[in-house]
Amino acid sequence: MKILLIEDDADTSAYVRRGLREAGHVVEVAATADDGAFLASQGSHDVMIVDRMIPGGDGLTLVKTLRGGGTTTPVLFLTALDGVNDRVEGLEAGADDYLVKPFAFSELLARVNALGRRPPLSRPRGTVAVADLEMDVARRTVTRGGRRIDLTPQEFRLLEYMLGHAGQVVTRSMLLEKVWDFHFDPQTNIVDAHVSRLRAKIDRGFATELIRTVRGSGYIIDVAR
Amino acid sequence: MSPVRLFRTATVRLAVGFSVVFATGGLVLLIAFSWMVSTFVQHTAADALRTEMAVLQAEAARPNGDSLARQIREREQTPAVDAFLYRMEDVSGRLVEGDARLAGLRPGPGTVDLVEGGLHGAHGREHERETVKIRTLGERLPDGGLLIIGHNDRAAEEVREWMWKAALWGGVGVVLLALAGGAVAGWVFLQRLERLNAAAARIMDGRLDERMPQVGLGDEFDRLSVNLNAMLDRIQALMEGFRQVSSDVAHDLRTPLARLRQKLEQARQTATSTTDYEAAVDAAMAEMDQLLATFGAVLRISQIEAGDGRDHFGDVDLSAVLERLRQAYEPAAEDSGRALLGEIAPGLVVRGDGDLLVQAFANLVENALKHAPPGSKVTVGLRRGEDGAATAFVADDGPGVPEEERERVVRRFYRLDRSRSTPGAGLGLSLVAAVAGLHGLAWRLTDNHPGLRVELVFSVIGDAARG
Prior knowledge:
The complex is a heterodimer of chains A (225) and B (467). Chain A has helices at residues 10-22, 33-42, 59-68, 86-93, 105-116, 153-164, 172-179, 190-202; strands spanning 2-6, 26-30, 47-51, 75-79, 97-100, 127-130, 133-136, 141-144, 147-149, 170-171, 211-214, 218-221.
């Protein structure tokens, strides 16, 4: 993917750029709001990573301007502020996701991947499938190998999100935000308990495990390679 | 208090202003009054002259009546106080009868100044020499002569004089009274304010627990004291918060930092393989994450306590929030051998920040799950109360918190001795307290017999069950 990184802190910038390049992405870097706006208008990026505090106007204003100009490129906000309202303000300005510094690089990578290959917003209400696991989103039914699997509403939402990002790593905090709308770090590992129940329902008794744990990051639903 | 300062007070300046207004008003009133009185006196005098004139002529016109000259003579010889003066002239203007001094007057009203002194006339009254104004009335007689009747105008003069004196002294009195009243009021006012100033000075000197005294000048001023004190309470609470955060950061974060350093040092000295180093780095990162989470929590609590987030208040379906929370934690609770039950009344909507409320209740649930032993029950509940209130609670049947400790567990980084071995930084209830404060909620820790029960009382703005 082609990623635009707008970040003024040299260390963070180098760290993120190196990590993204190692993951196979093309990265352009801008250190000021003006450079960022210029680069954003030049190339077609798949994802923009914007720091909220950058010289020459803050990231919020930059994103608002870009959105006002018709740019639809997904934006991930980076910020050192852990303010109560910062997340809401960022999303209102037009950002698609939000990550508070300091962050684990695996978290950033997972979120960038999720943004870059986001399914179209008007996804047809059909079925989603990975291998022999099928989900009928409209009827809210799940089958594997033709056998009906009963899920609780939470498990259904969890599986729905994971299937929507099949082949990508989804982190625990992504799941907390998207499935439960929790925007804080619980001390209890509530995600693992849910995933293990979901796993028990869809993988137990089948030869291939579809949900895999990615150590230090999160989970991935995929056909094992 | 110096006189200059006294004069500078608003009250005294007001009093001076009022005294000017009062004095002017009083003066105008007195002038108008004296003018009216002297006019009345003049009219009375003129009437008396006309009446006397009519009486004399009527007598003279009577068939057997006394002639004018005779009447005048008789009257001049009868002693009387404030008698009339008369002069009768013939056609050529020569004196026929009466007082020679009333010369040179014409018909109609007029005045003449006489010098009186010593023994005068038939009255035998002694006067100092003085000029006396005589008011006169002249009338043509049928034979072409002239009859002049005069009367001393002293009474009217005296009335006018008294009125002016009254106006003068009255004005002076009004001014003096207004000034004195203003001075007294200002002095009293300043004395009372001085008590506030003294209290303010003491507070500025660092005695932050001092409060403004009641001034005793009526409701408005006492309300000022009450408001100032409320402001001071708030400032003190915020300062206390800041002070506590700095000391918390200094003392309580030093321990994990030291532990981190120790781990790294140990790895540097003893690790021999990549695996050893990786293990040490992983351990250090885990420690670091915990530290960062603690920092984040402290910051967040401070922000909430400072009032951030009120702008984002909206309608929150508390029933749905609590049910979502219970379901989210249920599997994890089950895995740890505890039951997470719900007694949640449906459809209750409150006003607040949904994210913060979720986090606060999550902290309560996590606390309960952490401190209650395996096998215990944790209940998340929401009950309709009276008058549109609803009580949300998280209760466990674990060891609970001793009554004397309940106030302290709310403090940042405070932990009961027996929970030192469980993970956590002692910030959970501080955040709950901050969120409750932001939402203006009453909340309390009570005994669940056994266990701890934390209750928060909301006021409901929407109730699906009652419409």
